[in-house]
Amino acid sequence: GLQEYLLKYKFANATWDNLIDILSAKTDFDLNTWSNNWVKKSNMPTIKVDKAFNAQNKLSSLILEQSDPSESGKKWAQEIEVLSLTNGKYDFYNIQIEDTFSVIPVALTENQPELILPNSNGFGYGYFELDDLSKKFLLRDLSVFTNPVSRCSAYITCWENMLNKNIKQKDLLAAFLQSLKTETDEQNISLLLSYVSTIYWKFLLPQHQKEFNTEIDHVYWNKIQNSSKPTHKYLFLKSYFTICNSEAGVEKLYQIWSKKLNIKDINLSENDFTELACEIALRTPAIADSVLQIQISNILDEERKAKLIFIKPALSSDIEERNRFFESLKAGKNREKEPWVISALTFLHHPLRSEESKKYIRPSLDLLEEIQSTGDIFFPKQWLDATFSGHSGIDEVITVNVFLNENPDYPINLKNKIIQSSDMLFRASQINGK
């Protein structure tokens, strides 16, 4: 089909529909409906697994039900692998789902599966809703799978269930921290560290963050000291820089930065020490200025030195200095070093400063059209991501909604960027009951 498509349209223009027309003639599968629902329309399916029993109350089949969150009747055809765990025995089922209900016959048994994990190989796309038994099992032991791909799929599935309010954020954070103790795959470790950081800063209220500080310190510091692979040590250390939020932990950061505490097998770079100085400045206002000033003098690379000098006001413990810095960004000449601006904005909007920085959101939105006209093509999205990065409150949600309501004819490409970048803000506000 591809050869025919390339031959027919060589040296000419062709569309996606031209390709689908050619491929459709070569299969009994309904490619036009597939293309319409997967490529041309928005959203993704919600898929959950139900159990069916026979007259003797024995499990006879698993039923996959897909639904359209937008309630427009779309159906997404795809192949799904379903993992079932019963009495320590794993069964894997592959099924092509095309309609609302798809049935997987299973061997008759009186025992219910302890775990049903749809999309265990990660090839499927959608929100895979976990049943209550499976949720309890995974939250108790996410490391049950020997296959790192299945573990990864379980991590992602649990994350999506939290975002859809089917798993409580505190329960998932505890489960992910437990998984970090035993996970050996580097990509999975990176994924878990990212999830833990996002849940901690975005989806927990400050009083609930305190409940996890000791456990986070224990898990991360144990891995920093005792991981057998230096790359794993470095992953945990870099993540510890950003998530550390206890007095004892911040003291460790200061000891590392001042080179009084060395980590075996880890050689930190000039960039690492600069990042560490910035994180310390956020957490210890009393010494913020001196730490940053010392770090500036320690930097040998002139470009890196200039970057930290530029960012320094955004890290200041003086709110008036931070206000002046934000005001300076309204002038195009002060936004020329775009990566520097993004770094500074991320620190300006850090969760530890969210109450003081939420006032910058509306003027940042007001600047967006100018940002687009004067900056790189990717700068508007990066500007928005940094602006919303540390926020999870109802005040910030209201600010976004008011802006969109007051600008009904706002350019659709920028409106979509605002909606995309603020998605986690809206979800966090809802999940936190705000």
Strand-helix topology:
Elements: H1 2-8, H2 16-24, H3 31-40, E1 46-53, E2 59-67, E3 78-86, E4 89-97, E5 101-109, E6 115-118, E7 127-129, H4 132-140, H5 148-163, H6 169-180, H7 186-203, H8 206-226, H9 230-243, H10 247-257, H11 270-283, H12 288-298, H13 302-311, H14 319-328, H15 338-348, H16 354-357, H17 361-366, H18 368-374, H19 379-388, H20 394-406, H21 412-421, H22 423-431
Parallel strand pairs: 1-7
Antiparallel strand pairs: 1-2, 2-5, 3-4, 3-6
Would you kindly provide a written description of the structure presented here, covering whatever features stand out?
The chain is 56% helix and 12% strand. The model has no long low-confidence stretch (mean pLDDT 95). It is an alpha+beta fold and 434 residues long. The protein is globular and about 75 Å long. A hairpin with a 5-residue loop joins strand 1 (46-53) and strand 2 (59-67).
